[in-house]
Amino acid sequence: GENVEQHPSTLSVQEGDSAVIKCTYSDSASNYFPWYKQELGKRPQLIIDIRSNVGEKKDQRIAVTLNKTAKHFSLHITETQPEDSAVYFCAASKPGYSTLTFGKGTMLLVSP
Amino acid sequence: DGGITQSPKYLFRKEGQNVTLSCEQNLNHDAMYWYRQDPGQGLRLIYYSQIVNDFQKGDIAEGYSVSREKKESFPLTVTSAQKNPTAFYLCASKAGAAPNTGELFFGEGSRLTVL
Q1: Three-class DSSP category at B107
Q2: What Rg value do the Cα atoms of chain B yield, rounded?
Q3: Which segments of B1-115 are extended strands (E)?
Q4: What are the pLDDT digits (tens) for B32-82?
Q5: Looking at the partner chain, which of A6, A9, A93 has a beta carbon nearest the beta carbon of B100?
Q6: From the first residue on, what is the mean pLDDT of each consecutive set of 10 residues in chain A (112 residues)?
Q7: Which residue of B has its CA nearest to A89?
Q8: Chain B contact set for A49 (CB, 8 A)
Q9: Shortest CA distance from A9: residue in chain B
């Protein structure tokens, strides 16, 4: 089955810095890659996703890039703010499957 | 107010007891999912259902059971056969049962502690 590796497990940055979280996947057939954010004590929520026919997608301060050849994708957050502090999960899904395989998560801490 | 509701929020259980976690959604979503969240382990899929009266095992189904008698309800039973049941359990739903599409909407979770 699919395996998703996520790094780093924790990331500390200063407010205003950029943050990058990387994920690799094992199954080259995977074609859908969402990112979920879980604030402390709250439910995970989708923040951005990308499909394999696109190399990059942006939404204000967040962006996701995908390298199909290398089978990795990354979340980029620019101008980080304290409210960006949360656990971020990447995930992957294959055609014909209605389930996601999640990475183990990255705890991002943004210090004022 | 549409959403997905899990109950109870906190639950304590003695070893050897079965316990059922409730998950109800009023979003008219076809697919529903149960995930287990442990520190440093991410979200691991226990069971999922794409349609009423049908469900499939996920990656860690042993020691758990589910039912899907109604579209809006997907309860999870943690049985005494589950060797390490203490965890945070998340229920989720998705609008379409079609594969590989759609946002997962999560409930607020149920924290189960086995004493």
Answers
A1: coil
A2: 13
A3: 4-7, 10-13, 19-25, 31-38, 42-51, 54-57, 64-66, 76-78, 87-94, 105-106, 110-114
A4: 999 999 988 899 999 999 999 999 999 999 999 999 999 999 999 999 888
A5: A93
A6: 94 98 96 95 94 91 96 97 97 87 96 94
A7: B42
A8: 103
A9: B40
